[in-house]
Each structure stands twice: as C-alpha cells, then as structure tokens.
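> forwarded from #structure-qc
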C-alpha cells in the first residue's frame, strides 16, 4: 500500500525557515524521482522542486536559491529545507513522485505571516 506522509509545516514569520519531511512507503522509493508541490488558497497545484535518483534536483523559479530538496534512500524520506520564506509561500505542501501518480498524502500546511 502506497503511503506518503508529509510533516513539518507551521506558522513562520517572513524571512524565516522551515524544514518539511515526507515519509514514503509501499513503492520502490530508491528508484523514484520525487517531487514537492504546493497548493495556495484558491489556486491550483504548483510544482516546487524535484529530486532524481542520483540526487540531482530541479526547482521552480519561485523556489530556486531558497528551497533545497534532499533525500535519504535508507529511510525512504525526502526533505524540503525552506529559507527566506515569504507570504506567497503560504500553501499546503505535498510530496509525490515526479509524475504525481501516487495517492496523495494529507499535505502539511505552511503559513508565512507576521
């Protein structure tokens, strides 16, 4: 049974940092490129960043230079270190495969506000 569980969200002031984690199970994680995506209030799903099997990553312009994705294949987890957060980063953050074809987790809420 495929399961994705996101955690680490919260309320942070502008300029602050958060680290999100995603725990994955039920599929060949080590062979999967993994993605973080987010959905802001009233908006559609937005791709944030992807990490490939070899550890290389791609990021959206909005995340480039501020967000860092990493993976631990031994633990079947991916993390998202988010720095210099801004109000426009407020969203529910989800992890999934690069094709976004796995059952979605509940996501983790990130709120950036003073």
């Amino acid at each position: 049974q495929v399961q994705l569980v996101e955690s680490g969200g919260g309320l942070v002031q502008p300029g602050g940092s958060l680290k999100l984690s995603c725990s994955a199970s039920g599929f060949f994680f080590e062979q999967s490129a993994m993605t973080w995506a987010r959905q802001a209030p009233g908006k559609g799903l937005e791709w944030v960043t992807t990490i490939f099997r070899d550890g290389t990553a791609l990021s959206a312009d909005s995340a480039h230079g501020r967000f860092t994705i990493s993976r631990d294949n031994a633990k079947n987890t991916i993390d998202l270190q988010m720095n210099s957060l801004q109000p426009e980063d407020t969203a529910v953050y989800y992890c999934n495969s690069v094709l976004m074809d796995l059952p979605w987790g509940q996501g983790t809420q990130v709120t950036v506000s003073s």
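QC bot note: The first strand starts at residue 3 and ends at 7. Residues 5 and 106 are 7 Å apart (CA to CA).
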